[in-house]
Amino acid sequence: MDETQEWAVTFTFAGALAEFPADASKDDRAADAIEDEFPPDLDASVSAAPPDRLMVTLHLLASGAPAAVATADKHMRMHCPLDGEVAVEAVTEAEHERRADAPTLPELVGASEVATLLGVTRQRVHQLREHPAFPTPLVEVAMGPLWDARAIEAFARAWSRRPGRPPLAAAQ
Questions:
Q1: Which DSSP string corresponds to 88-148?
Q2: 67: helix, strand or coil
Q3: Contact 48/17 with Cβ under 8 angstroms?
Q4: % pLDDT > 70, the chain
Q5: pLDDT of residue 172
């Protein structure tokens, strides 16, 4: 038998925000209203996720993922007014916290950082933008384009770099 440990069980619902009026605070009001349905001694959190999804996470002790899901499902049936469940996921509390602490935005790099990663000049970076496999910038701002560092690193691994100028075409 598995030893008892802390679990986070998340239920995802589609279309759950449709019943709330459309305005900037509807997601917060929907989450608060649903969270209020759970008793204070049950560690439940509700969050909105675009487009039009709500996620209800229950934190509880159980002897394994199946037991955690079964216990959470019982509480959901008693306290949650939502229909339209599309997913259920159980992870250990440690994994839940690791995910919560992970960066949610990619590492952004400009032309100078791309040049360093590829071992070329900034001018060459702008020439490489014409290469069919070169990543498209995520955004263009006043200072210039910004790329996802992982996309640039993937390009660098696949790029068959040929230093120097290409040979002149033979005169015909």
A1: EEEEEHHHHHHHHHS-SSPPEE-HHHHHHHHTS-HHHHHHHTTSTTSPPPSEEETTEEEEE
A2: helix
A3: yes
A4: 88
A5: 52
